[in-house]
Specification:
The complex is a heterodimer of chains A (about 110) and B (about 110). By secondary structure, chain A is mostly beta strands. Chain A contains no helices and eleven strands. In chain A, strand 4 and strand 5 form a beta hairpin. Chain B is globular. Chain B is mainly β and about 110 residues long. Classes of the chains: A mainly beta (about 110), B mainly beta (about 110).
Chain lengths: ~110, ~110
C-alpha cells in the first residue's frame, strides 16, 4: 500500500535549469496538492487540483506550473529554477469530501545552486 | 477561514501526558479542528479531528472547549517517537484543502 509517492527524493539544479517533480497516489483520491516547506517554517500551498482536469493557485504559485495528468498523477514543474526555490516539496492527496484527512508523500528535497 | 495560535515549543517527559493547546477564537460554526504532526524530515501525518465533541482515537484525544474558541490535543503517554512539530488547523466542513494553510506549529520534544 504505497499511498502517495514522490520522485525524485533529492535533486540538485543549477539556476535556470528546469525540472519536474512527479507525484502519484493509489488511493483513488479526487484532490491533490503541492506544498513547499522552507527551514523552520510551516507548509505553504503552491498549487492544488480539486479534481481531475482542474488546477488552482495556492499561496505561492509564482515560478511553478502543474499538470493533473490523470486522477492518480499530479506533477509540479519548475521552468527556470532559482535559488529561492530551494526547499522541500510535499505532495498530498485527499478524498476532497468531509473526511478532512490529507495524506502526504515523503517529500522531495530540491537544491538550486 | 479561522486562524490558529499555538505555542512555538514545549517539552514533555517520556511516559507523561503531553497537552498541546491551540487557540482558534475566530472559528466558525461549520469549521472542524484538525491536528497533524510532522516528524523530522517526513511528510505530515494526520492525528485527529473534531467539531465540538471530544474525540479519541488510538493516537490521541482532542478536547474542544464549549465555546469552541480553543482546543487541546492530548498525547496520553508520550514516547520519544512523539517528538515532532504539531499543527492545529481549522477547516470548514466539506471544504477542499486548497485554501488551507499550515502555520508554524508547536515543536514538541519528548525527553527521557
Amino acid at each position: 500500500n504505497a499511498g502517495v509517492t514522490q520522485t525524485p527524493k533529492f535533486q540538485v539544479l543549477k539556476t535556470g535549469q528546469s525540472m519536474t517533480l512527479q507525484c502519484a497516489q493509489d488511493m483513488n483520491h479526487n484532490s491533490m496538492y503541492w506544498y513547499r516547506q522552507d527551514p523552520g517554517m510551516g507548509l505553504r500551498l503552491i498549487y492544488y487540483s480539486a479534481s481531475e482536469g482542474t488546477t488552482d493557485k495556492g499561496e505561492v504559485p509564482n515560478g511553478y506550473n502543474v499538470s493533473r495528468l490523470n486522477k492518480r498523477e499530479f506533477s509540479l514543474r519548475l521552468e527556470s529554477a532559482a535559488p529561492s526555490q530551494t526547499s522541500v516539496y510535499f505532495c498530498a492527496s485527499s478524498e476532497g469530501g468531509t473526511t478532512g484527512e490529507l495524506f502526504f508523500g515523503e517529500g522531495s528535497r530540491l537544491t538550486v545552486l | 477561514d479561522a486562524k490558529t495560535t499555538q505555542p512555538p515549543s514545549m517539552d514533555c517527559a517520556e511516559g507523561r501526558a503531553a497537552n498541546l493547546p491551540c487557540n482558534h477564537s475566530t472559528i466558525s460554526g461549520n469549521e472542524y479542528v484538525y491536528w497533524y504532526r510532522q516528524i523530522h524530515s517526513q511528510g505530515p501525518q494526520y492525528i485527529i479531528h473534531g467539531l465540538k465533541n471530544n474525540e479519541t482515537n488510538e493516537m490521541a484525544s482532542l478536547i474542544i472547549t464549549e465555546d469552541r474558541k480553543s482546543s487541546t490535543l492530548i498525547l496520553p503517554h508520550a514516547t520519544l517517537r512523539d517528538t515532532a512539530v504539531y499543527y492545529c488547523i481549522v477547516n470548514p466542513l466539506g471544504a477542499r484543502w486548497g485554501k488551507l494553510q499550515f502555520g508554524a506549529g508547536t515543536q514538541v520534544v519528548v525527553t527521557p
